Amino acid sequence: MAGKSDGARAAAPGALRDAVRGSVLVPGDEQYEQECAGFQTGDGHRPDVVVAARTPQDVRAAVDHARQHGLPLAVQATGHGLGAPARGGVLVSTRHMTDVRIDPTARTAWIQAGVRAGDLVAQAARHGLAPVNGSAPGVGVVSYALGGGVGLLGREFGYAADHVRRIDIVTADARLRQVTARSDPELFWGLRGGGGGLGVVTGLEIELVPVERIFGGRLVFDGGLVAEEVLRVWQKWTESVPDELTSAVTLLPMPDVPGVPAPLRGRYLAQVHLAFSGSRDEGERLVEPLRDIGSLLVDEVRELPYEECASVFSEPDTPHSYRSANVLLGPEGLSDSALRSVLTAAGPSAEAMCVLSMRHLGGAFSRAPQVPNAVSYRDAGYLLYVLSPVSDPGEDVVRALHERVLAPVGDRALGRSTNFLHGPQDQGTARAAYADEVAARLAHLKAEYDPQGLFRFNLWDTGAGRG
Ligand SMILES: Cc1cc2nc3c(=O)[nH]c(=O)nc-3n(C[C@H](O)[C@H](O)[C@H](O)COP(=O)(O)OP(=O)(O)OC[C@H]3O[C@@H](n4cnc5c(N)ncnc54)[C@H](O)[C@@H]3O)c2cc1C
């Protein structure tokens, strides 16, 4: 293999290389760093071996290799949700497994493990269909769905996990299984929303929804003037909107640097993100009370093809180092005093930069899917989360700050959202993403399908001290 040192060549597992169509990389190989890198730059994987998989058989070979040598195994698609970083062991990189097959008649998509939301949205749009994707086009479809999946139109269609029909997965015995509600009901239940750790998924069959256009986008307010009012008015407003409207608020400071549009540069912003599948006229009427808040800097709310749905959140796509914390709140949301306390800790005068966000749940998020799954806390009305970059200040400062931000709502919290836990978690936090009976069933599944604990460095494993 080009660019590989002699030392690395000697360490490369030859039998694994023979079994894999993609690449097998070890430290020192030219592609090793690139394959380990992900969106989260804070603490990347440093495995002894990377299998850059091209096929399900490659994944099977990697799992078999790990099993035979007693090595812990990590999986990465895009690195947006990196939990515990692998130190040693095997990393299966799925980023090259990007096949998408749409069946417009059945309204389904078959996707491989490395497919990103933006690619799926674009391909589904050609057939007048859409996946129940989330805010950022770069996020991997598989892991997003394994963690539940809080989508742009989730109040109308529910969690992404509710739309998974079939899961192809390599389990710890190195078997490639096709898991459906009929073939393996308990495993199918636990994979959809359970946060992973039961195998390496090689592909999913998911349902698509018939959405070609939406009325939506961003309203960006001058948060230095009206942050509290935006949060308060928005929360009150969500109490009366239809299920076809899903929305969120994000509060954040914008740096004063070239590249940020002039009206936003150097300001504290309060953004409302909206996606409505109803008519434009109805949308305009629904949005009026928000526009009336005033101090609007940018109004991008309009009718748009679903293919442009990434503009609803317009999240930055530059890899960086970050940590986040979250709570799921009941339908009553934040009291006025909690709202003020949260804003004091995470708002414009926060000790470190905070992106404070609240998403409206309820609607179809709250309804049980036809085939039950492991998504917990369906009675949640809102998801509140805070995210901060962690180069300066360091991780300890940021974690302590996040605890202070969420402390005022602790007594109202139902639990945590799996997908919005970024970075290594302590066991208590990961555990809080599941109701007691769900966590117990998931623990049984882990014991049955991965008794040796082969699949590590995921939500369920902090990986501390492992290598
Ligand atoms: C900018 C941004 C926006 C986001 N927006 C949303 C949103 O709107 N809604 C929402 O619900 N979530 C959202 N998330 C969270 C995101 O869905 C999760 O972090 C998800 O786990 C990312 O998956 P990934 O494949 O992109 O990341 P990765 O880091 O590659 O994967 C995350 C973890 O999933 C596991 N995993 C990955 N692939 C497989 C596989 N094939 N088989 C088994 N396990 C696997 C591994 O444990 C891995 O560590 C967002 C995250 C970011 C950073």
Automatic annotation (TrEMBL):
Q: Does the keyword Iron apply?
A: no
Q: Does the keyword Oxidoreductase apply?
A: yes
Q: Which InterPro entries match?
A: FAD-bd_PCMH, FAD-bd_PCMH-like_sf, FAD-bd_PCMH_sub1, FAD-bd_PCMH_sub2, FAD-linked_Oxidoreductase, Oxid_FAD_bind_N, Oxy_OxRdtase_FAD_BS
User: Where do the FAD-binding PCMH-type domain residues begin and end?
Assistant: 43-211
Give the source's domain of life in one word. Answer: Bacteria
Q: Which cofactor does it need?
A: FAD
Keyword list (alphabetical) reads: FAD, Flavoprotein, Oxidoreductase
Q: Which family does it belong to?
A: Belongs to the oxygen-dependent FAD-linked oxidoreductase family.
Q: What is the name attached to this protein's record?
A: FAD-binding oxidoreductase
The source organism is: Streptomyces smyrnaeus
Taxonomic lineage of the native organism: Bacteria, Bacillati, Actinomycetota, Actinomycetes, Kitasatosporales
